[in-house]
Amino acid sequence: MPGCHFVISKNVLTQELYYKNQVILTYTIYYPRFLSKDNMLILDQINAYYSTKAMIYINKNIMNLYQEAMVDYEYSVINQFPLRQYEVYVDFNVTFNLSCILSLYFDCYEYRGGAHGSTIRTSDSWDIFCSRPITLMNLFPPHTNIKEYYINAIIEQIRHEVQNGSSLYFDDYENLVKQYLSLSNFYLTYDGVVIYFQQYEIAPYATGIPEFLIPYSKEGASLPR
């Protein structure tokens, strides 16, 4: 496998949005730019994808939040409630950058008032040498029941934590894992595949985003070759 490694920089889009001379929403969005002496054709396409994705998020999601923040502002003024400033913060973390393979995840935090905001995680993995995104099907032997494999591995990890006194998960975690496991919610590390769940799916808010590292193995996932 080619041993290429990519240089990563951060682009940022940030702004304060005003309404009646009051800042009612701020946003900061980081997204990656990948550079290499080789493979720039596919990297330029990936860079354009993330740049476009950031702009679409601003033009759609943030503008919708801005409209909501204006309504919230007027309601608060009329009812003499404290004014709440909305906030959006998006950042990424590259978890694998080796042998022409990239993997990363994005955490998108939105605060609309109240006790706390909410975070949504998304992720991507790329095989730059083959010019394609990586799915879990690319990592397993043919005809493997991938969903069943990860359900069993994750339930076993949680069961072990619970037996050791952990109370981080809902009592019916087995059914919830089966219900909410998504084979697109993964990223690669140097030790294995991490499967994650969104907030509240299998655990309370205080748990954060539950993550489960499943090591590479002959029976399970292995990196593309």
Descriptive report:
The protein is α+β, with helices and mostly antiparallel strands and about 220 residues long. Helices cover about 30% and strands about 35% of the residues. The protein is built from 3 helices and 9 strands; from the N terminus they run E-E-H-E-E-E-E-H-H-E-E-E. The strands form 2 sheets. Strands 1-2-3-4-5-6 form a 6-stranded mixed β-sheet, covered by helices on one side. Strands 7-8-9 form a 3-stranded antiparallel β-sheet, covered by helices on one side. The chain is flat. The mean pLDDT is about 95.
C-alpha Rg (nearest Å): 21 Å
The largest pleated sheet is described as:
6 strands, mixed
**What is the fourth-level CATH superfamily of the largest domain?**
Fervidobacterium nodosum Rt17-B1 like
Question: Given the helix and strand composition, which structural class is it?
Answer: alpha+beta
Question: Which H/E pattern describes the elements?
Answer: EEHEEEEHHEEE
Show unreliable segments: none
Please give the count of helices.
3
Give the rounded overall mean pLDDT.
94
Number of domains: 2
Pfam family, one: PdaC
Protein name: DUF3298 and DUF4163 domain-containing protein
Organism: Herbinix luporum
